[in-house]
């Protein structure tokens, strides 16, 4: 089998929680491919987290919210020390305001304190001595929906940012505003990937079905029962990743979909964005 670097084993262990030797074997079996190694561990039932994100960089995220516009900006760097520094945090906050006011298109070329955003980031690199880059950017604007946003602060910086838009509601309804905020908090915690089951691609479903089939077979289940067991486990996949099918974090017995439906006959979640520093 191919040799794998200790740092790759450590990285896989960090995102899966599996044992060191299991991670090493997974990387050997998959030619060093981290994502494939996660699937390999899951197929063996070795405790790999389904929610594990791919390792990214350090950084900070900020969110700006008005009645009509919500904006989110991530700025990446190499260390936590820089990410929580005053200059770095202030820059991210300023960039989020720029996106809210001027839009996200060609952000690097937009004006910022007598220079462009791109030039400001370059100067920040020189000042702080680390690789610093613009990360993910999102901007929502609505004329008839309800927007909300949330920034989770940990270790003196924003580590998770969320934007969400509700439609089919009275934007002046306090209950709609309250639910939009509750959903932003829920999304930050529960990390859904899709709004509804129909949004999940056939490719993603087939990949999950393949993983669950191998896992079920490796557990020694009867071959004739595997297909039925896998379909049942796929429902668990939807409850993990589909927003409207997740149990609400404050009351897991109630689905997010039921909460939205109770708000108004045509209420819907139009879109959401979730960015967590350190995950892609």
Q: What is the H/E order?
A: HHHEEHHEEHEEEHHHEEHE
- Largest sheet properties: 3 strands, antiparallel
Across the major sheet, the strand order is 1-2-5
Overall average pLDDT: 90
Number of helices: 10
Shape, principal axes of CA atoms: flat
Pick out its properties.
280 residues; alpha+beta; Helicase, Ruva Protein, domain 3; Tetrahydropterin Synthase, Chain A; three-stranded antiparallel β-sheet; 24% strand
Helices, strands, pairings?
Layout: H1 6-16, H2 20-29, H3 34-43, E1 58-65, E2 69-77, H4 80-83, H5 86-102, E3 111-112, E4 115-116, H6 117-128, E5 133-141, E6 146-154, E7 157-167, H7 174-190, H8 202-218, H9 223-241, E8 247-248, E9 251-255, H10 256-263, E10 268-276
Antiparallel strand pairs: 1-2, 2-5, 3-4, 6-7, 7-10, 8-9
Explain this structure to me?
The chain is of the alpha+beta class and 280 residues long. 45% of the residues lie in helices and 24% in strands. α1 packs across α2, α1 (6-16) crosses α3 and α8 (202-218) crosses α9 (223-241).
Short note summarizing the structure:
This protein is of the alpha+beta class and 280 residues long.
């Amino acid at each position: 089998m191919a040799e794998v670097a200790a740092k790759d084993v450590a990285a896989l262990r960090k995102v899966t929680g599996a044992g060191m030797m299991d991670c090493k074997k997974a990387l050997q079996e998959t030619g060093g491919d981290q994502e494939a190694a996660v699937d390999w561990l899951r197929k063996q039932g070795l405790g790999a987290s389904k929610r594990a994100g791919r390792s990214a960089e350090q950084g900070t995220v900020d969110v700006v919210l008005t009645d009509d516009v919500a904006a989110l900006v991530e700025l990446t760097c190499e260390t936590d020390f820089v990410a929580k520094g005053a200059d770095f945090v202030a820059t991210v906050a300023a960039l989020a305001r720029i996106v809210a006011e001027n839009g996200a298109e060609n952000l690097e070329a937009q004006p910022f304190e007598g220079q462009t955003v791109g030039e400001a980031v370059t100067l920040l690199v020189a000042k702080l001595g680390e690789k610093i880059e613009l990360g993910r950017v999102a901007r929502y604007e609505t004329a008839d929906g309800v927007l909300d946003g949330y920034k989770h602060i940990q270790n003196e910086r924003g580590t998770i940012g969320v934007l969400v838009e509700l439609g089919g509601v009275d934007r002046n309804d306090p209950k709609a505003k309250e639910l939009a905020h509750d959903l932003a908090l829920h999304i930050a915690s529960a990390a859904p990937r899709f709004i509804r089951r129909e949004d999940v691609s056939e490719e993603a479903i087939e990949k999950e079905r393949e993983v669950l089939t191998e896992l079920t077979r490796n557990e020694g289940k009867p071959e004739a029962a595997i297909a039925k067991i896998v379909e049942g486990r796929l429902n668990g996949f939807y409850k993990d990743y589909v927003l409207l099918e997740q149990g609400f974090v404050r009351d897991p017995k109630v689905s997010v979909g039921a909460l939205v439906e109770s708000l108004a006959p045509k209420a819907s979640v139009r879109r959401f964005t979730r960015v967590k520093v350190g995950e892609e």
